[in-house]
Structures are given as C-alpha cells and as structure tokens.
Write the structure tokens for this entry.
Amino acid sequence: MPDTTPRIANLSDHVGQTVTVRGWVTHVRSSGKVAFAVIRDGTGVMQAVFVKTQLPPEVWERFKELTLETSVYVTGEVRAEPRAPGGFEMGVVGLAIFGSSPLDYPIQPKEHGIDFLLDHRHFWLRSNRQRAIFSVRNEIEQSIHDFFYERGFLRIDTPILTAAIGERSGLFSTEYFEEGNAYLAQTGQLYGEAAAAAFGKIYTFGPTFRAEKSKTRRHLTEFWMIEPEVAWNDSADNMRLQEDFISYIVQRCLERRGAELRELERDIAPLERVKAPFHRVNYTDAVAVIQDKGSETKWGDDLGAEDESLLVADYDRPVFVMNYPKEAKAFYMKENPEDPRTVLCDDCLAPEGYGEIIGGSQREDDYDKLLRRIHEEALPVDAYGWYLDLRKYGTFVHSGFGLGLERTVAWICGLPHIREASAFPRMMHRLRP
Ligand code: 4AD
Ligand code: MG
C-alpha cells in the first residue's frame, strides 16, 4: 500500500494540491512582506513561503512564534521549486503550532564539541548528517537480511542472557535468580552452531556486549553483530561467503544510497573497488610485512589497529588475514592440520584503515581437542556441556563469522569514529542519553 500521507519525500506526488505537512522548523527568515520557514519531517526538507498580503493576519503573526525545532502543521499548495532546499516549496495558507520550542534549544547552527553533541544525542539525531548515516545503516541491515534470505539461510535469534562465555574480552554480568551469574552475550555464535546442526544454514542478528575498557575509535561496549553459521563449510568456503556478503552490502549502498553518501562527502571510489575476490594473506606473512614496516608485533600476538593499517595500505580491496596462532584467538577455532600452532580462521580487514570488520573461523569439530582448549583457557567446563555435545552426537564440519554492524557503517559512511554509527552509543564513559 503506498503511503498517501503527505511526507516531504513524496511531495512530488502532491504538486498543485493543497496539503498539510507536519514537521519541525529548521530555519526561518523574513523580509517583512515575505517570510520563509524550512520544515523538516525526517524524510526531507521543504521551504514554506508566507506572503503577508495573501494570509489572514493571525497566520502572519503566528509565523513570528516559529523558533528552531518548533513543531508545526503547515498547510498550503505544493510547488516544484528547484532553488528551494529539497526541490519543493509550499505557498502557505494555514499554520498551526503543535509544540513550541524555547529559544535555548541546545543545538544551534554553529560548531559544537563532540561531548556536547553526544550529551544531546537525542537532538543531534535530527541533523541531515545523522539522517544520512542512519539511512545507510538501514540499507546495510536490509541488504544483510536480503542476502541471507535469497540464499536460504534461517535467521535465528539467540539469547542475550547466557551462562557460557564466547569471546575473551570482558563480560557484563548480572545476578540471575538461583542460577548464579548471567552474562550479557558477547556473541550468538555458540547457539548459532547448535542451530546450524539443526537447520543447515543460519544467521543471527542481534546486540552483543563487551565490557572492554578500550577507548578507541572502533570499540563500543554494546554493538550489533551478524553471525552466519554454515554446516559443511570449511574455512575456504567461509571466506568466499564473506567476500560475497561484503561485496553485496557495499554494492547495495552504492546503488541505493548515493544521495546519502554524497551528503556525508564519502569518496566512493574505494567502495567501488570492493568486489570479490579479496586479498588473502597468511598471518605469518602478515607479521613479516608489518615488522618490515617497523611494527614491534611478534609472531603469536594478535594484530593491533596500527598493524592492520600498515597491512591494508598495500591493498586496494579488503584483505583476509588467515590462520592466526592459537594463543591469539578464541578456544573454539579449529586447529590447522598443516600447522597445529595455528587455527583455521580469518579476520577481514576493511580498506582505508578501518581495520577488522569480520572475525571468522572453521570450528573445532573434534571433541577431545575442544575439551582440551576449554581446559587450557580455564573456562568453566560445566557451562559448555551442551556445546561439547554438538561434537559428541554427529559432529560436523562447520564455519561461520561475525560482522560488526557499527564498524561496517563507519567504514561505508567514512566516519572518523564508530560512535556516530550507533543512534545511542554505549562506550566506557557513556551510558546516557
Ligand atoms: O572477532 P569477534 O570477537 O568474533 C566473534 O565474536 C565471533 N564469535 C564471530 C563468529 O565467528 N561468529 O567479533 C566479530 C566482529 C569484529 O570483527 C568487529 O567487527 C565486531 O565484531 N566487534 C566490535 N564492534 C564494536 N565494538 C567492539 N567492542 C567490538 N568487538 C568486536
Ligand atoms: Mg576479532
């Protein structure tokens, strides 16, 4: 059903008609005889034109009450006007004020510091730039669902309150009745593996939590992760799925969100190069390359943000770094039969210094090896009984990965910091608004 409610984005359907648009005032100016108000309704902006001689005096007087962010019902005839912001204007015949907005509205048309903007995130969201970001984020989310739906994956929603730990980074915990501590999920993966044995190809799409004390431009304490898990995929299949997936998402944003990427002043040339196949580098070779470039990272360490930047500088497309040492990665990754010091895994690094957007791996399918790793990592074995069972009753080759949604949004939008990719970001020092 087409929505026939007049919204600014569909004003082209109402040219010549008299309609009422509901929205918020973003600018006003008056010459004494003619006055203009720019109205935003979330779908776009429209210029409302008030001509003193053509209006009842009370409407002309009411115009003077309009301040930044006053909410209004404005009625008039819609005209195409290429010089107006948004391309349409309204010849006003009626104006009703729904909610006044005092003159001390916090966000004014001037530069504000980042902490001030984050403290007023509930208002900052009203800017054109934020609308562009969340419209790209929405496109990314929709393209993810479409990609998996078209390929026959089932979406599985996994629990947020869990007893088992998935990753090494910090945990948020809360008391859970008589059951002891519950942890906020760091990942849906372990449950995803159970679902893959049941349904073949699945993905999860949900919030995940990391109590990491990292104050970097790519860490949030709450972020959304997309985690496909596929029965019978090995590590090579897993990387092919990742490169098809990322290429699909980027292509969709280029096709459908060009206007928003322009609003964000995103250089799209690097995005246009994001096509499978991506580059593949072994961890061991990667360490040699970054050491040559001056990094002090040693074999055995995980790669830091700077290492990742050094490495991707040589490439024009995303890069897979494959087969990290066991000690750098989580317990569930499958031992590499060709070099048992390493595991069958990959991190997918985005270009332009955005770093790791995906962590993926083939999963350990051998009961004894997995149990040994659980002991080595000093994890509570009893919490993993059900997970070990997946290796005891009909174990299977399987692989999957996790894409960080906000990192992907930050990269595709070209944002300098991940915080703007979340509507209400949660970081070490930020729980409000
Ligand atoms: O590499 P990670 O920790 O992998 C997992 O959680 C696996 N269970 C995924 C899987 O195999 N199913 O996290 C995956 C991705 C990272 O590549 C990154 O994009 C994002 O999640 N991520 C974060 N994003 C924002 N803030 C953080 N603190 C993040 N930690 C990870
Ligand atoms: Mg990782």
